[in-house]
Design goal:
With 494 residues, chain A is an alpha/beta fold. Chain A has 18 helices and 15 strands. Chain A is 37% helix and 14% strand. The radius of gyration of chain A is 25 Å and the shape is globular. In chain A, 56% of the residues are buried. By secondary structure, chain B is of the alpha+beta class. The chains are: A alpha/beta (494), B alpha+beta (136).
């Protein structure tokens, strides 16, 4: 396929005659191109309109995401346009698409972008090119950005995580196990005083963190200052009761940067170790808050509010692994990245690829996990993934198996919904976690013997007994939408 | 109160056999073990006293246990923790840390609230040792 259609750039005279040329004749399709180490590479999944050849579709994506417009312009000749043109250099059919399958023919198009096309350290600029215009382009039925290779030269222009996994653990003095959190429920409606009660009970019971939900900002039932004051009373009181560092992710998401800075400053004054923002505030605001967090010794938690509008469907949008990559560059310390076993979308292989992207110093290509490129993170700090949504103590062995140790496990309902109370719910989760980690370290096969380990701990821990009895049979066993392409059969969520 | 710092504080105190198994796990991963002790478990008291240097050369849990027994003998009524340090790039930090000895009566923490402008409060924690508690 690569060489099936040769790059036939029109000779110079004809190339710049006024009028319309095919994109591939304008230099955007170059099958012989060898990507440079400093190129940004993007991998798109394209579904061309009927009658549009895949090479032309790929060239169109390259053109529209770099220098091209719909017609020839002579002003190209005032620039080193060969350098600035993005080059589509490879097109592969996507496995299990096309005739004889249930999915219409799709292609993976590899496109290389010269480094000078991008402003240093700017996710806004990077994304304005790569996803700026091209997703609405008529010759394509659908388009999805599957993965990107960010060259080391560009990685080094980003701050990266304000704190990172290593320093977060050193500040919190918590090692050797996943961290535990919970989102205060109900999400909306509690007064500041009642809200703080949930925070206190969960933290003194054994959680490390409690969290505002994505849509808790400053509503009539609870203004932000009230929430911050009552939450920090709860955090400090729990710290005194346990001797541990505790935290509450104070969501500083607001209408303007000025409001967000004001809220973040207040969180700092009150001694909070962590603040929170939502993905919907936008890439520039996220980078601003990451810089603020680095300057102020603050851990920065990102809730990925809104992402499923463009990450979930396989044929159109942006794969979450790309968002994860951008957010590591942008500089957040925590990001919600899937649970595999919980209530929200998450194929185990896709999730493994995302977790590797967030946590490894070097992420090698792994098609089975949906990772298409080797990615050297060049010393950029590591982002702590957060697993949240429909998980409970009875799944602890599965969570540790799938997600590993450097992760925040968030049991909102699984803490607050405990029949004996919030502190008991928290204790059940902490005991379950420590028992499973201890057993794993002892060499026990936790995947198979997890339920027995939990049963054994429940003999001396009655809150765990009650948790196991309450949620024993709760599973969310649906087939994932966003799966990888390079497996014989899609893996099922457990 | 029971101070719940460390990886396994919510479990019953580990037996010496269980401690040895955890040390084996760390040594098998190439981590170096160190022992630290203190009488003040304040959450911001990062630097507990070192019981000698990290045991980079000790690759056998028996050797570590020998040091632990000696440390316990000298400091029977203090906190002692086992740390496992990983020098791999990307970590270069503690990977496992758990308490293996506690004082007979543990200290508590007093929450000190200093009221500020508006309704804001500055919080600090003070360790309250058992003998101070008795005097009070």
């Amino acid at each position: 396929m690569n060489t099936a259609v040769a790059a036939k750039q029109a000779p110079t005279r004809k190339r710049y005659d006024a009028g319309v040329l095919k994109y591939r004749e304008m230099g955007y399709w170059q099958p012989d191109y060898q990507p440079q180490d400093t190129d940004v590479i993007a991998l798109f999944r394209i579904t061309p309109q009927d009658g549009v050849e895949p090479e032309e579709a790929a060239a169109a994506v390259a053109g529209e995401s770099s220098t091209a417009t719909w017609t020839v312009v002579w002003t190209d000749r005032l620039t080193a346009c060969d350098k600035y043109r993005a080059k589509a250099y490879r097109v592969d059919p996507v496995p299990n698409t096309g005739p004889g399958t249930r999915t219409e023919q799709q292609y993976f198009a590899y496109i290389a972008y010269e480094l000078d096309l991008f402003e240093e350290g700017s996710i806004a600029n990077l994304t304005a090119s790569i996803i700026g215009n091209v997703f609405g382009f008529k010759p394509l039925k659908a388009l999805r950005l599957e993965d990107m290779r960010i060259p080391v030269a560009y990685v080094k222009t980003f701050q990266g995580p304000a704190t990172g996994i290593v320093v977060e653990r050193e500040r919190l003095d918590k090692f050797g196990r996943p961290l535990l959190g919970a989102t205060t429920k109900p999400k909306l409606g509690l007064s500041g005083r009642n809200y703080g009660r949930v925070v206190y009970e969960a933290l003194r019971g054994g959680l490390d963190f409690v969290k505002d939900d994505e849509n808790i900002n400053s509503q009539p039932f609870m203004h932000w200052r009230d929430r911050f004051l009552f939450c920090m009373e709860a955090v400090n009181k729990a710290s005194a009761a346990t001797g541990e560092v505790k935290g509450h992710y104070l969501n500083v998401t607001a209408a303007t940067m000025e409001d967000m800075y004001e809220r973040a400053e207040f969180a700092k004054e009150l001694g909070s170790v962590i603040i929170m923002i939502d993905l919907v505030i936008g890439y520039t605001a996220i980078q601003s808050m990451a810089k603020w967090a680095r300057r102020n010794d603050m851990i920065l938690h990102l809730h990925r509010a809104g992402h499923s509008t463009y990450t979930r469907q396989k044929n159109h949008g942006i794969a979450f692994r790309v968002i994860a990559k951008w957010m590591r560059l942008a500089g957040v310390d925590h990001i919600h990245a899937g649970t595999v076993v919980g209530k929200l979308e998450g194929d185990p292989n896709v999730i493994a690829g995302i977790y590797d992207t967030l946590r490894e110093p070097y992420t090698p290509a792994n098609l089975m996990h949906g990772v298409f490129f080797d990615q050297d993170w060049a010393g950029l700090r590591k982002v702590m993934p957060v697993a949240s949504g429909g998980i409970h103590a009875g799944q602890m062995h599965q969570l540790l198996h799938y997600l590993g140790e450097d992760v925040v496990l968030q049991f909102g309902g699984g803490t607050i919904g405990h029949p004996h109370g919030i502190a008991q719910g928290a204790q059940a989760n902490r005991v379950a976690l420590e028992a499973i980690v201890q057993a794993r370290n002892e060499g026990v096969d936790i995947w198979h013997e997890g339920p027995q380990i939990l049963e054994k701990a429940a003999r001396w821990c009655s809150p765990l007994r009650a948790a196991l009895d309450t949620w024993r049979d709760v599973t969310f066993n649906y087939t994932s939408t966003d799966t990888v392409d390079f497996v014989p059969t899609p893996t099922e969520a457990v | 109160m029971r101070v719940t710092q460390g990886t396994f504080s919510f479990l019953p105190d580990l037996t010496d056999d269980q401690i040895r198994t955890q040390i084996d796990y760390a040594l098998n991963r190439g981590w170096a073990i160190s022992l630290e002790y203190t009488d003040d478990p304040h959450p911001r008291n990062t630097y507990w006293e070192m019981w000698g240097l990290p045991m980079f050369e000790v690759r056998d849990a028996v050797g570590v246990m020998y040091e632990l027994y000696a440390c316990r003998k000298t400091h029977p009524n203090k906190y002692i923790r086992v740390n496992a340090f990983d020098a791999t790039r990307g970590f270069e930090t503690v990977r496992l840390s758990f308490i293996v000895n506690r004082p007979k009566v543990e200290p508590e923490f007093r929450l000190v609230r200093t009221e500020g402008p508006g309704r804001s409060i500055r919080y600090s924690l003070e360790t309250v040792f058992p003998d101070e508690r008795d005097r009070a």
